[in-house]
Amino acid sequence: MFRNLFFAAVLAALCAGLLTSAIQHFRVTPLILHAESFEGAGHSHGEEAVVHEHADGTSHVHEDAAAATTAGHDHGGDWAPQDGFERTAYTVLANLLVAAGFALVLGAVSMLAGLPITFANGLVWGAAGFVVFSLAPAYGLPPELPGMPAGDLMARQIWWIATAVMTGAALLLLAKTRAGWAFAVAALLIIAPHVIGAPAAPEEASAVPAHLATAFAANTLGTAAVFWAVLGLVFGRLNDLFADRTATQYAGKGALA
Amino acid sequence: MNTDATTNAPAHVAIHSLSLSQRLIAGGLALMLGLLLLGGAGFAGDYRLHNGAHDTRHAMGFPCH
């Protein structure tokens, strides 16, 4: 059974991930690259430290400049994919892995909660995934471009995960029961992370122009909506297919394993 | 969503024909694998993972540096 779930999840992730990569390539990545051009000295993809030549012929490395470079954009370490094909290839690969991760989590929730993902309700699952993993986290932590000031990374990651878990629990609860108390608990779960508040960005000017940032927020959320819709629908369609086939096999063998 | 449980055919057969322990095992495995992938691609601090998945993290709305 795990095999069916696994194949349906991976195939759905492949479809959604590749389509998303294509949209991203034209609508999202150019904004990231554009934003990086404003990071200027603040952006370190492993550049060398600034070497300062003095008139007397001696030279020394400006440690403070090097430190500032790393602090501005923490890409620590040396390796990063080369801009161009290599960078795009890594992004597509990472997209596919993230897509597979989301699909497996969706499938796991379906399996554990006993709520099937079908072609008929695939769009509902997709919408739920969008709200849980894209919209709710973005409500507190708007999609961020390189070079924009942001709060502590670990704190933001914890808030992101907590928000996704709580919003997901709320939707799952409503999917299982529509009792009055369930609405109250769900509302509480959804609102709480936003009342507590996401880790705030420090009060400093962003190096990135506002119009890039707004375009980025709209385009990433739009792309995510397409991703989740496709993931839910394809996942559901494949589940229907596999279930049909399995049912036929079992009927043939007269066994239910 | 809880009302259509008996109306929609095939995948329901799949899930509802499974025993609880089968569902727990399949669901548990899928959850672990899924979270492992998301953790590696979306959250891990290792600089190779970060730099390789950099644009994906930004584009998918994960917190990134």
UniProtKB/TrEMBL annotation, chain A:
Q: Which domain of life is it from?
A: Bacteria
Q: By its UniProt entry, which Pfam families does this protein fall under?
A: CbtA
What is the originating organism of this protein? Answer: Devosia pacifica
For this protein, the parts annotated as crossing the membrane are 92-115, 122-141, 153-174, 181-201, 213-235
Q: Which InterPro entries match?
A: CbtA_put
Q: Which UniProt keywords apply?
A: Membrane, Signal, Transmembrane, Transmembrane helix
Give the matching NCBIfam families.
CbtA (TIGR02458)
UniProt keyword Chloroplast present: no
User: Span of the secretion signal?
Assistant: 1-22
**What broad taxonomic lineage does this protein's source fall under?**
Bacteria, Pseudomonadati, Pseudomonadota, Alphaproteobacteria, Hyphomicrobiales
Q: Does the keyword Transmembrane apply?
A: yes
What is the protein's name according to its record? Cobalt transporter
From TrEMBL, chain B:
The cross-references to Pfam families, in alphabetical order and at most eight, read: CbtB
Organism source for this protein?
Devosia pacifica
Instruction: Please list every transmembrane segment annotated in the UniProt record, as residue ranges.
Output: 24-44
Name of this protein: Cobalt transporter subunit CbtB
Sorted UniProt keywords:
Membrane, Transmembrane, Transmembrane helix
Highest taxon of the source? Bacteria
Q: Which InterPro entries match?
A: CbtB_put (IPR012667)
